[in-house]
Design goal:
By secondary structure, the protein is an alpha+beta fold. It contains 11 helices and 17 strands. A 6-stranded antiparallel sheet has the order 3-2-1-6-5-4. Helix 1 runs antiparallel to helix 2 and helix 1 runs parallel beside helix 4.
Length: 382
């Protein structure tokens, strides 16, 4: 225990002066205090396909590790420690967000101590990432287009959980996304969720997406309800980008009661699963797309769904269901429903279901998406 506390003390020294790229060398020096010969941070890439050593001193010579089919990948996908004869891998979790794994070469692992170290390392990665580009250099495996850079910098962490409620999302193509986005916020008992699909692609679409996201946040933080939020976003889009539009789901979930309220602004209906079976989807649309709301003589219609403990909602853009195979066959709602149902039936976590879904969509379109594809899952356990 004294040695482990010394390792904690050394790591905490990074809080006040240091960068993410300093972490590999610090961990290497602290490894003997944890009963390990080496310690390394492995971060997942944007495509969530492989784990790569965090760029920095003492990280050279480490090879990337596939997420699928490896002990390190198992620790990442299950969010639980895995062990071999001479190595242990611990998930790096920032809240519910999966960052990667901590790898230690050791034969005598005290998992309780190492889990504390892994939690601290995850916090250091997140708190230090804004002071340099080491984390981004590690996670990017190909050049990111400017439109995607703009969108990713607007987004919250992919996964969040509180009091039995989880929301998690995925976006592709991760290096060239421009028109799709999502947002959420947990305020008291209310989980606010928005999913957006902007017309067009590239810089123009990312600029419109930026306006939409920030208008959504401004309305939410100003205390506006869903109807007024819709009208605020609609007004600003018409003023700044006349003729453009954004389809969206604007939703609120009362995490205490399971009351789900939403506006569907020209967007595909959510998929609702209960006890492993698909339920009738909420009515859609209930309003015109954002930016076109003035064409209708009435305001947006709000619908309410009462969730039951264990229910799952899947929000998605049309890039998911309209993905096409070589023969031109759509992926479609039936395939999406079957995929989600089967994956949850296997006991996979919500973030892992989303990771596998987006890889399935990319594979279905032979690696070249015709449109941005975004999905978000909300699970309510009551």
């Amino acid at each position: 225990m004294p040695e482990a506390m010394e390792a904690v003390r050394r790591l905490l020294g990074l809080r006040h002066r240091g960068r993410a790229e300093d972490l590999p060398a610090l961990l290497h020096d602290a490894a003997p205090l944890l009963g390990a010969s080496t310690a390394a941070v492995m971060l997942v890439d944007y495509g969530q396909l492989k784990l790569y050593p965090l760029r920095g001193h003492d990280s050279t010579g480490l090879a990337p590790v596939p997420v699928d089919g490896t002990p390190a990948g198992e620790a990442f996908t299950t969010a639980r420690a895995t062990m071999s004869d001479d190595c242990v891998w611990l998930p790096l979790l920032h809240g519910a967000e999966r960052l990667g794994v901590l790898e230690l070469r050791t034969r005598a692992a005290d998992l309780d101590e190492l889990e504390v170290i892994a939690a601290l390392v995850a916090e250091l990665i997140v708190s230090r990432r804004g002071y340099g580009d080491a984390v981004e250099h590690t996670r990017r495996r190909e050049p990111m287009q400017l439109a995607a850079e703009i969108v990713w910098n607007q987004l919250p962490p992919l996964t969040f959980a509180v009091d039995g409620t989880m929301v998690t999302a995925v976006l592709e193509p991760c290096y060239d996304v421009g028109g799709d986005a999502f947002d959420y916020a947990a305020n008291g008992d209310i989980l606010h969720v928005g999913l957006f699909d902007t017309v067009g692609h590239g810089i123009a679409a990312s600029a419109l997406t930026t306006l939409t996201l920030n208008t959504y946040r401004n309305a939410r933080r100003s205390g506006l309800g869903l109807t007024d939020t819709y009208q605020s976003i609609d007004k600003w889009i018409r003023a700044q980008y006349p003729g453009s539009f954004v389809t969206a789901i604007l939703a609120e979930l009362d995490t205490r009661t399971g009351r789900y309220r939403r506006i569907s602004a020209g967007h595909p209906a959510e998929l609702l699963l209960r006890q492993g079976r698909s339920r009738p989807s909420p009515v859609t649309p209930t309003a015109l797309p954002l930016g076109l709301g003035n064409m209708l003589g009435r305001g947006p219609r709000l619908t309410t769904e009462q969730l039951e403990p264990g229910d799952t909602l899947v929000l998605y853009t049309d890039g998911i269901t309209e993905a096409r195979d070589r023969a031109g066959a759509l992926f479609g709602l039936d395939r999406l429903t079957a995929f989600i149902t089967e994956s949850l039936g296997l006991g996979l976590s919500a973030p892992e279901v989303m990771r596998r879904l987006i890889h399935t969509i990319v594979s279905y379109e032979q690696g070249e998406l015709r449109d941005d594809a975004t999905a978000a899952m909300i699970r309510w356990r009551g």
